[in-house]
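Hi R.,

Here's the chain you asked about this morning:
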Amino acid sequence: MSVEVQTMPYRHVLTVPAAGSAVRIARETAELVLVECGVGLRHPSVGPGLLILAELVTNSVRHAVVLSPMITVTFAHGAGAFAFAVHDRHPYQPALFGALATAPGSGLATVVEMTMELGGTAVVRADADGRGKSIWITLPL
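And the predicted structure, written out as tokens:
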């Protein structure tokens, strides 16, 4: 998939405490954003996309809360694509594609596998100061 997130005109940013409720809030917000952008919730990429989002938020809540009491989810939408990023301030940057080889069946491996099956992309972007990261998922619509 070659759609660049920077070319997506619609943006929505959600910041929530790194707590269990963050997963539900992120999913509900994603549904609202998709509807606002004219994407039906029955689109074949929506269900898997919401599962991917929930897994990434869960990972931030479980693994980053000590250094990142808040999680930011950024949603972007443009012609033929929907993207979202889960950001926390923990410096660890997982090797997304290494997850498939080293931990099949793990949450991160599932995220990468589902993203690839949908024809999407997954990328980790470090914060400029190296003390946090965003995991961006872009899915075709």
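The longest strand covers residues 70-78.

Let me know if you need anything else.
M.
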